[in-house]
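QA checklist item 7 of 12: single-chain prediction sanity check.
[x] sequence parsed
[x] length recorded as 307
[x] structure emitted
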Amino acid sequence: MAALMKGRVLQLCSVLREGRHIQSRGRIFQQPIPSLALVNARLMSKESTYEHILVDKKGDGGCVGLVTLNRPKALNALCDPLMIELNDALKTLDADPSVAAVVITGSEKAFAAGADIKQMENIEYVDCVKSNFLAHWDGVTRIRKPIIAAVNGYALGGGCEVAMMCDIILAGEKAKFGQPEIIIGTIPGAGGSQRLAKAIGKSRAMQMCLTGDMITAQQANDWGLVSSVHPPDQLVSEAIKIGEKIATHSKVIVGMCKEAVNKSYELSLSEGLNYEKKLFHSTFATSDRAEGMKAFVQKRKPEFTDS
């Protein structure tokens, strides 16, 4: 873990001290964030640690990053400080050449039981517009390496949205998914209405969003929201196994494949097919494509160099 953190600008603690959000008269204001030079200087004298998440490396040779949401008293409710930490940790793991995939999980009680309502309660419309509220929460989607959500317990509201930002979702047998924002007089704000409809279809997404009802892990599996369901105590290890399997392939090609699949949600079929073809052609410019095909013909295990 020390090796993962060392040399990386993890400015959360310093930023939150000097760039913290202050609530005044029901509105959220943000003080100036210290310069990167100042942050670097502070980190030279004291290594930063995370407050709301745990970060580790698992799997063969530490090839799988493991990020655990860690606000147990709040059932891992999502707040700005946690999301800043999560985005920072994911960027760090994305830049780590030894890491091939990342697993995001929570506790057995809750992956994340929604956004922190106490943070949002007194925010007014103009504050949302000025701060582009929740805009940075989708940082998960900008990570190049595959991300696997291992969901135990509640994944509600923002928790369900973060899970859907990941590339693969595995569920524990007692997991519950939902977009209950309608119950508190609002709607999903971090992609829930959009990603849910693409994952399970309009009718089911409408049912979940308009009633606020939760669905079980088995329903989520039947509806195509998750890939598979596992005993809660085996969930994270199963997710890490998938990460280890991904790690046996070329990181370059894995990234291209992830990009191609994600584009299928944004493009028409004809545009998507054209995009895929161009990416396919570009694999022939890589050493790993040549090595992979040569190894197959020679009936041996490929030795990818991620180039």
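[x] summary fact logged: The longest strand covers residues 53-58.
[ ] second reviewer sign-off
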